[in-house]
Structures are given as C-alpha cells and as structure tokens.
From TrEMBL:
Domain of life, source organism: Eukaryota
This protein's name: Uncharacterized protein
Region annotation Disordered: where it falls in the sequence: 1-69
Length: 69
C-alpha cells in the first residue's frame, strides 16, 4: 500500500457543510430587467424595388420512367 494514499483521501475528504455557503442557482436570482429610458422610433417605410423575373429553363421536363419489358 502506498503511503500517499491515506494523505490523498484525507485531502479529498469533504469538509463540513457548515463551511460552505448554501448552493444557489444564479438563474433563480431575481435580476431586475433594465428598462430603456426611451422607446426607439418605428422603422421608416421603404419602397422596395419589384422582384426580378427569374426565367424558367425552357422545355424542361422530367424524363418518363422506362417501362420494363
């Protein structure tokens, strides 16, 4: 048996729970939500150009499946 093993166990032994603060989840804390000092103005209306026509591939069709003899 290694003489360091008991020392490691003693060092790794948990301390009394009284020494640790109570566990709390940071997401459960009530954090005040910041309120803006003023509201932003609405976005201005913008006239958008018309969408360009996308030409289709002429005379494209899916080939018919070949019939098995």
């Amino acid at each position: 048996m290694n003489s360091a093993a008991p020392r490691l166990e003693e060092a790794a032994a948990p301390k009394d729970e009284e020494e640790f603060p109570p566990r709390t989840c940071p997401c459960r804390r009530q954090v005040p939500v910041p309120v803006p000092e003023h509201e932003l103005p609405p976005f201005p209306e913008v006239d958008l150009p018309s969408k360009p026509e996308i030409p289709a591939v002429p005379e494209f069709h899916f080939p018919e499946p070949e019939a098995e003899p």
